[in-house]
Amino acid sequence: MLNQIVITIKSFIYKLKLKRMKMRKVILLSWMFTLLVGSAIAQTNYDTVSATYSVGDISTDDGFTLLGDVSTCPGVLNVVVPEGSSIVSVDVEYSMTAIVTSRLGDARSQLVCSSPNGTAEPAVYNGAGGWVQGTEAYSRTGLDIANNVTPPPFGQPIQFTLHAGNNYWGAPVGCSDAQLVVDNNSWTVTVIYLPPGSPGFASNPSPADDAVLVGLDDDLTWDFGANTDTYDLYFDTNNPPTTIVDPNAIPGGASGSYDPGTMLEATEYFWKVVGKNATNENPGYVWSFTTKCAALTYPYFENFDGVTAPDLPNCWIPLSSSTSEYSVVKINTWGSLSAPNCIIFNADAEPTPNLVLVLPEVGTISDKMLSLYGKNDVDWISGLPYTHPIEVGTITDPNDINTFTSHTSFVPGEAWTLLEVYFADYVGTDAYIAIKGVVPQYGVVYIDDVTVDLLPSCIKPIELVADEILAEQATISWTDMNGASSWNIEVVLADSVPTGIPTFTGVTNPAIITGLLDGTYYDIYVQTDCGTDEESIWSWPLRILTECLPWDVPVFEDFGEQPPYPEVASFPLCWTTIEQTGAQFGGLGLQPGNYAVSGMAVWMDAGGDAASQLILSSPAFTPPLNTLRTSFWVSNNGSADSTMVVGTMTDATDPATFTPYQIITGLTGEFQEITVYFNNYTGTDTYIAWRHNSDYNASQQLFFDDITIEEIPSCVDPYQTSVSGPTASSAMLNWTDPLETATDWEIEAGAQGFTPGSGTQTNAYTYTNTAALTQSFEMTGLSAATLYDVYVRTDCGAGEYSVWVGPVTFLL
């Protein structure tokens, strides 16, 4: 339907002001602007035609929110421009009203020239009215979206569509006028054009508009517009250009050219062709290009800190094939390695992002090396870093992202991670190195501190890996870039300063490193021996942790004191954790303060995931497990229905090898000591393990600390002592015999604070009974209103006794 309601045609004499806008060429017109050429004043005659939409409010579409989206119910407006005229620019104005629920800030809009060769505005415009209802006016001038449209025969319109969207989370699905609309009679499109007979716009510029890396001796060429009798060529480094380098020139054909001589390196130039005839003057488009950089000097270093966002350093080219305007390679002003800037590859909402950053030209690549630092964000749900790769490669055409070829890929961690790339094996003809961020939709990855240098004649080993790590030796290998056959190795304790003196000389690749200690972190450096007294610099270190040999007992572990930053606390060597959970806030770690008996304590939280596997495993032990017992202190988050499982493991890294031995019940928010005896264990496992009983209560949190593992004594001490049933002169002492083998005990009671076995007790008893798990003894002859401590020990005969257990304090 043609919704052309109001059309007015006026003839004006404009005085032109040209202004080139960032990223796109546009012409902004002013109603009375003076264009000076020498001492003469030239004028350009412009006509305008306007149309206003007046058939009702335009609905908004919740599916139109981002660049590349299309509304299914846009407004359509037609403007008739005389045949043979040249369109200069388009102005648009309209208002949008948020009626209910939606807010002005939810409004989205974009104008499109939908006639052949028309284009869309380069952005979707967001409402700036905030999170309130009301009406907001929009106005944009100097748009070039119809500049390539050839006006059809008189009476046939140029068509414009206004796409409007609602980004409110509760917006109606599809098109609706219930919440947010473009107001009727507010949308007006004005087309500014040169009347028929005027010179046409020059076109097909070379270098192309916004071209980069242009040769210093390249010529300028273009095609003249129709009806051009003479022209002025403007060329300089001003925007817009003010220097006429070829005044009142006569075209020598359909195309023109100009030799600017040798231009400056890494310089942006601006130029335009002003066509003239007896009828009118065409102001011309303002074009620009940037010349190539000077040859690099090495080492070349860039940390991106000498520029102001969004500008990149000279001759660094961001490329993107994405449709989203926010899917870009750009300067990032926070989280950098060297402050204040780094580079971010940001996919945003683009489903298939393709983001590449091109370095300045390096020429021959096979004699170069590159290093950079990369970093990934952390997934706030899992707490783990993302694994988005960074690829380093070459590119044939620095303006064509499809000519990128990957050479090396690596995945940085959540901390800045160094990557070194050696191009000694490169056999292509590309002259540019490029970096690609391989990110999914809404993914990001960062780089900083990029260095390009010449390859040394003797290259250090790269890509060190540990092929096998045992308790006292390790096998490592690396990538050789020299064709060498001999290397040196230095081994130091982790975080120690290397001496530069080899621990092993003349080794081969791979190499076996011997003489290591078990359960120890080492840093390993490798150096290439290129012969004839030439050696490379040392490689970056490879850090390894040797396997733990089985431990003897006793073992006590309190998990250390609280560090300055508890989140960086780590488990002791040879203690192994398994943390498998799909819960957003669950996990396994170390907690300080009130959650610990002292220093730090182990924390387990299934976070509601009944399938979680949260396990802490001890080191392997030399003594058989059926000769051992473990005691520890445990509490929960106050859950009344809370348990944990103590068991054994064959492989401390495999949860499937966990075998339950004893379920611990009766846990409370207060720490209590638990002792587990493995005397009835009949398996061959060598690890003791503690597991969150998530399949019983997935909402509980467990905290446990101060773990002791020791041999079961030959005379076992009583366990879980308590006092009950006090009377005026007696009370019952209760305890557990874990092995159910003892038959005789000694008991001492005395004033609070007395020492058992010292003769200072007030009451002493001996007790004999049949062996059983639970035992009770009535202590008689006590004094009323007295605060007592009581202790008990096992009498195993032949003068062998357990330790005294207590005190249990009670008031009679």
At a glance:
The protein is mainly beta and 812 residues long.
Model description:
Helix content is 0%, strand content 45%. It is elongated, with a radius of gyration of 40 Å. The chain starts with 5 loop residues before the first strand and ends with a strand. It contains no helices and 60 strands. It has 812 residues and is mainly β.
Strand residue content: over 45%
Look at the structure and give the mean pLDDT: 90
Quaternary state, please?
Answer: single chain
Low-pLDDT stretches: 1-42, 564-568
What's the count of strands?
60
Largest sheet: 7 strands, antiparallel
Helix content: under 10%
Class by alpha and beta content: mainly beta
Report the total helices: 0
CA-based shape: elongated
The end-to-end distance, rounded to whole angstroms, is: 100 Å
Q: What is the gyration radius calculated from CA atoms?
A: 40 Å
